[in-house]
Amino acid sequence: MSFWEDKRVIVTGGAGFLGSYVVEKLKEQGCKNIFVPLVKDYDLTKEKNVIRLCKDYPADIIIHLAAVVGGIGANRENPGKFYYDNMVMGAMLMEYARQFKVDKFVAIGTVCAYPKFTPVPFREEDLWNGYPEETNAPYGLAKKMMLVQSQAYRTQYGFNSIFLLPLNLYGPRDNFNPNSSHVIPALIKRFFEATEGRKEEVVCWGTGKPTRGFLYVEDAAEGILLAGEKYNKSEPVNLGSDLEISIKNLSEMIAKFCGFKGKIRWDSSKPDGQPRRKLDTSKAEREFGFKAGMDFEEGLKRTVEWYKKYIDSRGRKESN
């Protein structure tokens, strides 16, 4: 029998991008009792709703994916909201999970929690050696507070909680809203529209020099379930791939897949964000056997193809 088959699991954020894949993977593992609290029914920034959730659905495991999140622009415009909503959700969910005797709490952090000038590749031991990159520090620190809480609760209460640090995710069904999307979906949308509109130039933020790593969303879901099953320590663990690619090279690759043949111009008046991001993923492989499997170029092609089909289907619906 699968580890998950007889478990009652709450997946916060289960209707979102990553959450939808986690729910699918749970079902593949034979899990029959999955509850996804929707924002309209359970606003988890309100204490009464967190208590009601724990009463309505007594769970063995909570996987906390829900987050108020976005790219650099959204972080700059909403630092207070991103800090408060994420910090309060995490703190209250873990506290009431403890009170309601949930067996395990899987907390999903963010690579934005790392210091701005972390030695590359990022190792979990460097997590506290400096302040995060300023544009997303409120979000990153709010999520990192779950690590503090996790370790404190294990020490005082023996509460079993873990803390995972995933790289930036990408893949089909991503968020392509320009007001809140991350770099890959934002670039796909921009280059696709430029191709469709036969534009000769696309303007991208920053200098193109920063580097990023990315994790295919289906790989991330598999890593989360492996950790949920096999990892029972409060030390943080990176979830990622071995990739490190410059934003310039990423943009050129996406432009090619979208069929854009024009010029890419860089607006250096816009922020670059963190200079480099690449994770050391050896701990995840050592502790619970996770290693990302998707080839980046193949994953990117699948994401672009999904977006093209999504746009086509939306256009057909609107025309009808």
Description:
By secondary structure, the protein is α/β, with parallel strands linked by helices. Helix content is 44%, strand content 14%. The chain has ten helices and twelve strands. The strands form four sheets. Strands 2-1-3-4-5-10 form a six-stranded parallel β-sheet, with helices on both faces. It has a two-stranded parallel ribbon with strand order 6-9. Strand 4, helix 5 and strand 5 form a beta-alpha-beta unit. Helix 2 (47-56) packs parallel to helix 4 (79-99), helix 6 crosses helix 8 (247-258) and helix 8 crosses helix 10 (296-319). The longest helix has 24 residues, at 296-319. The N and C termini lie far apart (47 Å). The model has no long low-confidence stretch (mean pLDDT 94).
